[in-house]
Write a structure and sequence with these properties.
Layout lengths: L3 E19 L5 E20 L4 E6 L3 H8 L13 H15 L5 E7 L9 H17 L3 H11 L12 E5 L2 E5 L5 E7 L6 H8 L14 H11 L22 E3 L3 H9 L1 H19 L5 E5 L6 E6 L6 H7 L5 E6 L3
Parallel strand pairs: 3-4, 8-9
Antiparallel strand pairs: 1-2, 2-4, 2-5, 5-6, 7-10, 7-11, 9-10
Helix pairs in contact: 2-3, 5-7, 7-8
């Protein structure tokens, strides 16, 4: 009987996202707090005669149709899929270690495109799985992850982290437990196009890898109410006190959506307000924002609170799908 494995691949949200400048390779230097959440895909893996990918979608039809394309094999047996690219990067090493070809069935629960990092998380968990056999140093695994996508390295480790450059972890952040909602409309924004619309200037100064202190301070001020222990942060970072009841996490892509997609921006803004009002009833600070380049929006508050999907669905417009979430901190 073939061996079988089950991997859990969590989504993420960005609690603030600043795009600082464009690099010579057309990647962008970012600064963001990324946090894994309880919305997850599942990868079911077993030995096979040849590498195969299949999809079991638990998403609404308009998401499933787009995702299905990545699971349709080409004439040569390859796939336009990040899991295939991950396998292909290590195929020679796997053969040398007598690892058989694999069949991967993805139970898809994270919508795409959404800004929630579902494909990147899938790839990271698959790399960690393959490395159980290959025993590569962690630094080598990070290098492979960077070749697959800028969000992939984040998912190689657990917990929340401040990421910079093209997605590298700057340092981990100890956050308080939180819960809330993620909302997904029936439209999307291609990530590449969104970065083009940002129109960031090329930056090639000698100190171009440095994180501007004022930008870091602004981001930490927005998330300060969720930090569990400031003493665990790197030396020199000052505690930021937030007394606001409602916090909007800054995301540079929000201005792009407002400028180029005003109708969609209106729907997203109304949905954020609905979720914010619903969570505000518990009397704690509520944070709202856009995740990644969108279109996923979220509203979160400290601790575990009663979540009423039926009620929030009745107030939101625009065909939104709502998901209850908890932070995996």
């Amino acid at each position: 009987m073939p061996l079988k494995w089950e991997l859990v691949a969590p989504a993420k949200i960005n609690l603030g996202l600043r795009v600082l400048y464009r690099l010579e390779n057309n990647y962008h230097h970012i600064l963001s707090l990324m946090v894994p959440i309880s919305l997850c895909d599942v990868l079911l893996i077993e030995e096979s005669e040849s590498f195969r990918l299949t999809l079991r979608s638990e998403l609404p039809a308009h998401f499933s149709k787009e995702i299905q394309k990545a699971f349709e094999p080409r004439a040569d047996g390859s796939y336009d899929n990040i899991l295939y690219r991950a396998y292909h990067l290590l195929e020679k090493d796997l053969r040398a270690a007598d690892i058989p070809p694999l069949h991967i069935e993805v139970v898809k629960r994270i919508p795409s495109p959404s800004g929630l990092g579902g494909a990147s998380s899938n790839a990271a968990q698959f790399l960690l799985f393959l490395n159980e056999w290959l025993k590569m140093p962690f630094e080598s695994l990070v290098s492979l992850a960077q070749k697959l996508g800028s969000d992939v390295p984040f998912f190689l480790q657990k917990g929340a982290a401040l990421v910079h450059k093209t997605g590298e972890r700057l340092f981990s952040l100890p956050l308080k437990n939180f819960s809330g909602y993620v909302g997904l409309p029936d439209f999307g924004f291609p990530t590449g196009k969104m970065y083009e619309l940002l129109k960031k200037d090329l930056h090639a100064a000698p100190n171009s890898e440095a994180v501007p202190k004022e930008v870091l301070a602004e981001l930490l001020q927005e998330i300060g109410w969720l930090i569990a222990d400031w003493a665990e942060l790197p030396q020199g970072i000052e505690r930021q006190v937030v007394s606001k009841r409602n916090v909007e996490f800054s995301n540079d892509f929000w201005a792009v959506i407002c400028q180029y997609f005003p109708q969609e921006a209106s729907l997203l803004g109304k949905a954020k307000q609905v979720a914010q009002r619903h969570l505000s009833q518990v009397g704690r600070t509520v944070g709202t924002g856009l995740s990644g380049s969108g279109p996923a929006i979220y509203a979160i508050t400290e601790g575990q609170v009663p979540l009423n999907l039926a009620k929030i669905r009745s107030f939101a417009e625009g065909g939104f799908c709502w998901y209850p979430i908890e932070g995996l901190v």
